[in-house]
């Protein structure tokens, strides 16, 4: 997918944080029993978080429909969800003490700009927790070429030998689209 889509993927990966921050800003504003700018900011941040959910689903659907399919021979695999959990905890933990009194927009914009530049210059892909809502799990795999990749699959008990077709979402990140047993079931019907 393009670099623009990579940025959209990253933005949608922050949806849980946006939802929690939106609620925190909303509640923080209500505790002072006064409608302030934070109330409206909280509502907007929450709404952006909600909008990110169908956008993420749409990106996955678009990828399945339009990206080329290829074979990938997997030699080794391990669950990648353990890294996802630590990432989620790391970025949601600061929200526990969230009480926003003043937002420095210059610093916030500079941080967002640096994150976007790093995304464009590197092959880094953020773990997107929204994929769990759609039944996907992350797996760390090693291909027959010896390279290590991240794989998204809906299979709970992942069998690397059952993977028939994948699509490359981003550099070093693949999505399983057809498993061998799905292929056999399609041939039977």
Structural features, described:
- It is a single chain.
- The chain is α+β, with helices and mostly antiparallel strands and 189 residues long.
- Helix content is 51%, strand content 19%.
- The protein has a six-stranded mixed beta sheet.
- Helix 1 crosses helix 3 and helix 2 packs antiparallel against helix 3 (37-66).
- The longest helix is centred in the N-terminal third of the chain and has 30 residues, at 37-66.
- The protein is elongated.
- The two termini are 33 Å apart.
- The model has no long low-confidence stretch (mean pLDDT 76).
Q: Which key phrases capture this entry?
A:
alpha+beta; about 20% strand
Task: Offer a concise description of the structure.
This protein has 189 residues and is of the alpha+beta class.
Task: Please specify the SSE layout and strand pairing.
Blueprint: H1 3-13, H2 15-31, H3 37-66, E1 69-70, E2 74-79, H4 81-92, H5 105-121, E3 137-143, E4 148-153, E5 163-170, E6 173-179, H6 180-188
Parallel strand pairs: 4-6
Antiparallel strand pairs: 1-5, 2-3, 3-4, 5-6
Q: What is the number of strand segments? A: 6
- Note the main sheet: 6 strands, mixed
Termini separation (Å)?
A: 33 Å
Q: What is the H-and-E element order?
A: HHHEEHHEEEEH
- Give unreliable regions as ranges: none
What count of helical segments does DSSP give? 6
Give the DSSP E fraction (strand runs of 2 or more residues).
15-25%
**Backbone structural class:** alpha+beta
**Spatial arrangement of strands, main beta sheet:** 1-5-6-4-3-2
Helix content: 40-55%
Shape: elongated
The average pLDDT value, as a whole number, equals: 76
